[in-house]
Amino acid sequence: MRHDQHGYGLPKTLLMAIVLTVLISSSALAWAQFTSTITESASANAGTLTLIVTGYTVVSKPDYVTVSVTGVGSNAITITASPFAPGDSVVINVTIQNTGTLPATSLTSSVSYTNTYDAAFSLGTGTIPGSLPSGGSATIRHTITLASRLPNDAQGASMTGTVTFTGTVGT
Predict the structure, then answer these.
(1) DSSP of the chain
(2) Tens digit of pLDDT per residue, the chain (171 long)?
(3) Quick count: other Cβ atoms within 10 Å of Cβ 107?
(4) What is the pTM of this model?
(5) Do 30 and 23 touch, CB atoms closer than 8 A?
(6) 137 Cβ partners below 8 Å, 6+ apart?
(7) Smallest Cα–Cα separation from 96: which of 130, 54, 133, 58?
(8) Is 112 left (phi over 0), alpha (psi -120 to 50) or beta?
């Protein structure tokens, strides 16, 4: 028996040459590839819908009625008017603007008020546009009226009211 043979009846040097060839071939196959990578980035920001009051004009009022408006430049104003005599009305045009980046695709209003004397005052709002584009503005008329037929005990009556404009966009 020859001493240069090792297992499977092959000479030791030939067996080592086969193992070495297999190892080199398999490592060459592992490194014989090209790669390419694509990276995509995305960025998105939600827009804004912002309604503010930008101004007002007193259209009509009795000479003795004082009208003040506070909060212009914000999304909430307070209109104070007094003194009223029976049948008096104050008409004020209020300008609202959409300072956001999105259009108001729907614009609605609601009016609510309470009287210290039943049905003494009324608060109304005129027609509002159905939508308001970004940067757009609209003028809306408000009327505050003291009823013309009131009993003597309605003196000193007062009214607190709220007109709310709601702009919406999206689904």
Answers:
(1) --TTB-STT-BHHHHHHHHHHHHHHHHHHHH-------------------EEEEEEEEEE--TT-EEEEE-TTSS--EEEEE---TT-EEEEEEEEEE-SSS-BSEEEEEEEEEESSTT-EEEEE----S-B-TT-EEEEEEEEEE-SS--GGGTT--EEEEEEEEEE---
(2) 555 555 566 677 777 777 777 767 665 555 567 889 999 999 999 999 999 999 999 999 999 999 999 999 988 888 999 999 999 999 999 999 999 999 999 988 888 888 888 888 998 888 888 899 999 999 999 999 999 999 999 999 999 888 888 899 987
(3) 21
(4) 0.72
(5) no
(6) 54, 95, 96, 97, 98
(7) 54
(8) beta
